[in-house]
Amino acid sequence: MSDGAEITQWLDAARGGDRDALDRVLATLYQELHHMARRQLAGQQGRTLDATALVHEAYLKLIGRREARFDDRAHFFAYAASAMRSVVVDYARQRRAQKRGGDLHRVTDLPDNIDSGLRLDEDMLALDVALTRLAAVDARLAHVVELRYFAGLSEVEIATLLDRSERSIRRDWQKARMFLLASLKSD
Predict the structure, then answer these.
(1) From the CB of residue 22, how many other CB atoms can be counted at a distance below 10 Å?
(2) Which of 2, 58, 133, 157 is the most buried (most CB within 10 A)?
(3) How far, in Å, CA of 61 to CA of 87, rounded?
(4) What is the C-alpha R_g of the chain?
(5) Which is nearest to 168 in space by CA: 141, 147, 134, 142?
(6) What span, in angstroms and rounded, lies between the C-alpha atoms of 19 and 41?
(7) pLDDT in tens, the chain (187 residues)
(8) How many other CB atoms are there within 10 angstroms of residue 44's CB atom?
């Protein structure tokens, strides 16, 4: 049986409530999750949140939610990206709370290439608010942003994961960026 077929089988078992199956999925995909986290946190030396901690915190969120259901590999990674977003935003909030009197910093750009990682500060909090607004308007666009920013996936990887064309993902990414920038500048 191929890895993909095994993962699908384990995801089916996990959907039925089998925590051992979910553990097998996570163990199998751990390296990919860790790679996603490393890309996301690139350039964050000296911070207390590292890639391993991010993956472990996201794992705790994944197993802690009874309603978490993964239909396939793409759905699993989408949920993992959402869990990582939650961890990173919580971390940024905690860092902000430790700084006394800091106002929200205005984000003026969303880089097209995020290989340098995300800033775990007020920028992240402002982006989270804007992304929540985007999700209320167009959940598909917000999903692409989560996979791009919080999972660190490329347009090609997102297209493969969502079984869509790279061109449609690129259009979604551009629309989402325009919406987010407008939202961030209006705050």
Answers:
(1) 21
(2) 58
(3) 9
(4) 17
(5) 141
(6) 28
(7) 556 667 778 877 877 778 888 788 778 888 888 877 777 776 665 566 777 888 888 877 776 666 666 667 777 777 888 888 888 888 877 777 666 455 444 455 555 555 444 455 567 788 888 999 999 999 999 999 988 887 778 899 899 888 899 999 999 999 999 999 888 888 6
(8) 17
Region of 46 (left: φ > 0; alpha: ψ -120 to 50; beta: rest) is left
Closest CA to 62 of 48, 74, 76: 76
Q: How far apart are CA 47 and CA 56, in angstroms?
A: 16
Contact criterion met (CB below 8 Å) for 92 and 120: yes
Phi, psi of 105 (to 5 degrees): -80, 140
